[in-house]
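User: Peptidoglycan glycosyltransferase. Structure?
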Amino acid sequence: MRQSRQGRRGMPEASYDEASRARYRARASRPGGSGPGGFDSGTRVIFIILMVAFAIVAGRLVWLQVIDSSSLSEAAEQHRTNVITLHAKRGTIYDRNGNVLAMSVDCKTIYCNPKEITDPSGVAKILAANLGGSASDYTSALTTDSTFAYVERQVDTDVADTIKQQLSDANLKGVYYLDDTKRVYPYGDVASQVLGVVGSDGDGLTGLEYYYNDVLSGTDGQMIVETGLTGTPIAGGTSQVTEAKNGQDLVLSIDIDIQEKAEEVISKAVGDYEADSGSVMVTNPKTGEIYAACSTPLAKLSDLANTSSDALTLKPVTASYEPGSMFKILTVAIGVENGLFNADSIYNVPMQILAGDDWVTDDDVRSGAEDMTVRTMLVRSSNVGVSLLAQEVIGAQRFAEGVDKFGIGHTTGIDYPGEATGIVTSYENYTGATLGAMAFGQALAVPMVQIVRAFGIVANDGIPTTPHFLISKGGEGVDWPTGDQVISKDTADEVTDMMISVMTDGTGKRGQVDGYTIAGKTGTGEQAGESGGYQAGKYVSSLCGFANAEDPQVLVYVGLNGTPHLALSSAAPTFKEIMEAAVTDLGISPDASTTTTSTKSTSTTN
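Assistant: Predicted structure:
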């Protein structure tokens, strides 16, 4: 037995392995085996699927890492950065004497990261206590699904500091502060129609703030800050800053003292004379600089929510009215310039005259036709006399050409938004009534800045200027264009002399300022109705004039719209009060000789 066991141990071990392999080969060779590769069909399918999946994943990795890496980096960068606008400081606006009319002051804009706010109710209560309103007004911003939300813009610095301290004391986090600026007006509502207003985004919305927005606003910058997972700026994290470029300062022709007086006087006059509205413009007729301009209702910057859009514009620029008898100055100037008559030419003026199918009459009482000089026609403001001059002496074509040269029906180029053109019939479209009615200021409607410019032509020896507010920007003076000669100096002098007579002996007498020689003309135009025609007992009463007549340095226009009072009893005394303030403020000396020689009368007839 021992030998037999040892014999078995001595047998080659390979015989067992070979037998196993033989059995395996036999199984593999049977029908249905996996063949030479050693895989059955199910295994092969799984292998193929795995290889395809691997190829897809590998391809996507190549795409992400090589081809689309830049866009992924950009997306990641956007996810972990916030872009904060750095507002440029808006330029300061000064009046002609260096008084600050509009300026930007430092303030804070409050924002939050809602992801960090754990007690929205507590934060909201502190905000409401300092900013006004109720706590619920702030809940939306504090709980929005974002890492950045504005809470309140342009908060006074001291208020923002108080909020910051109170939140810190209460251990409430998630509220942050940006340096910002806001617009303030040291003179309050004074000149607000001229200056305009600025929106919360820092851009001008009306007035000169809008007109010169590109000059004033400058260029905003930006700060790109790196943020953490919650969107909070990382202390010491990287940031990119593009500095803001501040806007330029403006100096205006406005004299804030004259402006304030004009607003005060016209507001009172509207009430005293039962007018719907009133307007004023004070200029230098030799340069076109505007010292003051306003119209009622006046704007209230402190209550813009309840201020009508009508109150935010200057009606002398943006609205059109019939000029009434002020237009007679232009009619007479056209005739004198064409050599057709002079101040002392005499005409037989009937009680009424036809203009097309309409009868033109006068307000004064006379028993029949009467001889009048051209000067007398203006002193008495005779509609019939001036209509006669236009129809029987001047003629339609010469009249239309003269009106066009005076710029009537054309924008003046004033630097103010929304200037109206007016409604003026061209010569080709004249009807039978046009010439006779337009001669005394009916049958047309224009913004009163056109009348101011036209009277300025007479005051400036026949040379037109551009009405304007801007004197300089960024420290550099601005040149404003003058136009071609409209009438000769001789014509301007003769018309001025007749205008002096109006103020001393005629309808403008109550507008005369003691010690000064004023040349002017009243106007009482009929108030047009909304549905056509004219409103009974409603007038556009006005007076436009300049002083001193020999060397004009100031021109004043006053208009009362929708008043039942004629110009001689409403616009004239209003004009006087504003002119008195203007000559005093501007330091214009009284005329050395206030005795006029403008009461000539001859029998010359053309």
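The two ends are 172 Å apart (CA to CA). The longest helix spans residues 41-67.
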